[in-house]
Amino acid sequence: MMKLLITTVSAALLLASQPAAALKVFACEPEWAALVAELAPDANTFTATTVYQDPHHIEARPSLIAKLRKADLLICSGASLEAGWLPVLLRQAANPGVQPGQPGNLMAAMQVSRLGIPESLDRSMGDVHAEGNPHVHLDPERLSQIASVTTQRLQIIDPDNSSQYVAAYDRFTERWQQALQRWRRQAQPLQGKNLVIHHNEWAYLNEFLGTNSVGTLEPQPGIPPSLGYLAELNSSMKNTDVLAIVRKPSDPEKASQWLAQRLNRPAIELPYSVDSHGAADLFELFDKTIALLIAAQAKTQ
Amino acid sequence: MFSSKAAYAVIGAALCTCLTPAFAQAPAGSQQLNPAVSLIISGGVNEYSNDPDNYEIGGLPLLGEAGLNEEGFALGEAELVLDSNIDDRFYGKATIAMHQEGDELEVELEEAFFRTLTLPHGLTLQGGKFFSEIGYLNNIHGHAWDFVDAPLLYRGLFGRQIIDTGLQLTWLAPTDQYLQFGAEWLRGNERSDNSDFAGKNAVTTFITTGGDINRSSSWQLGLSGLFSDNGVVELGGHGHGGEEEEEGGDAELSGDTRLYGLDFVYKWALNGNPRTRNFKLQAELFRLERDGDISIAEPDGIEASTLASDATGFYVQGIYQFMPKWRVGLRYDRLNIDNSGSDEEVLAEAGYENIGHNPSRVSAMLDYSNSEFSRLRLQVNSDRSGESGSDTQVFVQYIMSLGSHGAHRY
Question: Looking at this predicted complex, what is its ipTM?
Answer without folding.
Answer: 0.86
